[in-house]
Amino acid sequence: MVLLALKPAIDGIQAANHPHVFFSNTKDGRVSIYKTSGNSDSHIILRGGKEPNFSSEAIQKTLTALIEADVNNSIMVDASHGNSQKQFKKQIDVVKDLANKFHLAIKI
């Protein structure tokens, strides 16, 4: 079951995976039809919100939701924004915490 907060991001990844055809303007102002092949390299970014979301549990839940949705399971953690409570000095703590998790080989 996809966590409600992750659903819009996972929906976006699923949409990006598929080819699209759309009308748009060219650089010289003409209308043209554009085709994309889809992007299988889309990923999710954990930025935090009211609460940080870079804990091992939050990352594991995100990974599980991506696997269940059958999309690329790449996760990027944003050390800024909500994960540092918008206090730039806390970004160092976020990065140190993540580095420590990897260094200690804690499965996240």
What does this structure look like?
The chain is 35% helix and 17% strand. The protein is an alpha+beta fold and 108 residues long. The chain has one domain. The longest helix has 14 residues, at 90-103. The mean pLDDT is 92.
Helical percent range?
Answer: 25-40%
Q: Which overall shape is indicated by the principal axes computed on the Cα atoms?
A: elongated
Number of domains: 1
The mean pLDDT is 92
Order of adjacent strands in the largest pleated sheet: 1-2
How far apart are the termini?
19 Å
User: How many β-strands, per DSSP?
Assistant: 4
**Poorly predicted regions:** none
Percent of residues in beta strands?
Answer: 15-25%
Oligomer: single chain
Any idea what the radius of gyration is? 18 Å
Structural classification: alpha+beta
Question: How does the major sheet shape up?
Answer: 2 strands, antiparallel
Order of helices and strands: HEEEHEH
- The count of helical stretches stands at 3
